[in-house]
Predict the 3D structure of the following.
Amino acid sequence: MQMQEGGEEMMTKNAAQQIEEAEHKAKEYQALAVEQAKKLLSDAERQGQAALEQALREAEAQRREQDTQAEQAAQLRADATITEAPRARDGLRGPGSYSHPTLPTKREV
């Protein structure tokens, strides 16, 4: 019986050692998985930030282009108004009115 107990004790020690080794490996794998997850998260954040910055640059470029187009259109309208204003003024005066925008002198009246 003594041998059997010694053999069981040895098997128990061997099983305990295997359990300890398995637990140690599990902790190592868990630590590695945590490191990998942190790296993946960091990489994703970096890529997301880069994508956001690129989108902001593109939006700013588009806004500048739209501003330029709006300024050009406004300038064209202003130029057209400046060109058309004298004609419109003259058209409103009707026949017999003075072509010069100043008031007539005493002699002209």
